[in-house]
Design brief:
- With about 190 residues, the protein is mainly β.
- The chain is about 0% helix and about 40% strand.
- The chain has 2 domains: about 100 residues, Immunoglobulin-like (Sandwich), CATH 2.60.40; about 80 residues, Elongation Factor Tu (Ef-tu), domain 3 (Beta Barrel).
- It is built from no helices and 13 strands.
- It is elongated and about 50 Å long.
Length: about 190
């Protein structure tokens, strides 16, 4: 689970990338079985993955986004991609990024997982969640922000956080994270 760390009593804005889950709490991943040179248009991968559509995007590291140039059936050992912008080593893991176009995203922080919304540590109204443009390398990116007043009276510690997707028909969880609130001056916070 990722950690979002902020100083209490200070305004904050944190960028977070939402990955597509496999339905069991883990991101959909592929692993390379051979090196891929800069500019590669095909990746050799372990054949233990679901199907991917043309245009799906995969994340390597924090900001390297790779786009599928056509479909990749479940279990295919080769994945067609647009020319890679970085060389990739055997064993590299790529994670599918969620397209958030058309959704409203909310953030909730609770004292612990399973708490009811009525006892929310920080209500979803304390946060602003802004979507980045979802068409390019920013797919899956959101910026979570709040004003200092949202955390100033809260005790420092680790809490359970989640991001939820809303549309006209439903609400569903997208990501879980640890929300770590530290005293100003700790862990490099001014």
């Amino acid at each position: 689970m990722d950690t979002i760390e902020v100083a209490k009593g200070q305004d904050f804005a944190v960028e977070y990338r939402i990955r597509t889950g496999d339905g069991h709490g883990k991101p959909i991943r592929v692993q390379l079985t051979a090196d891929a040179a800069l500019g590669a248009t095909s990746l050799d991968i372990k054949p233990d993955h679901p199907a991917f559509a043309s245009g799906d995007k995969l994340l390597f590291g924090e900001d390297v986004v790779i786009t599928l140039s056509s479909t990749c059936d479940a279990g295919d050992p080769t994945m067609p991609v647009t020319a890679t912008t970085h060389a990739l080593d055997t064993g590299a893991v790529l994670e599918k990024i969620t397209d958030l176009t058309g959704y409203t995203i909310k953030a909730v922080v609770l004292e612990k997982r399973g708490d009811l919304a009525a006892v929310a540590f920080l209500a979803d109204t304390a946060f602003t969640v802004a979507l980045a443009t979802q068409s390019g390398a920013d797919r899956g990116k959101v910026t979570i922000s709040a004003l200092a007043a949202a955390t100033v009276t809260k005790p420092a510690g680790s809490y359970y956080g989640s991001l939820w997707r809303r549309d006209s028909a439903n609400t569903r969880p997208l990501a879980e994270f640890t929300f770590k609130l530290v005293e100003a001056g700790e862990d490099g916070f001014a």
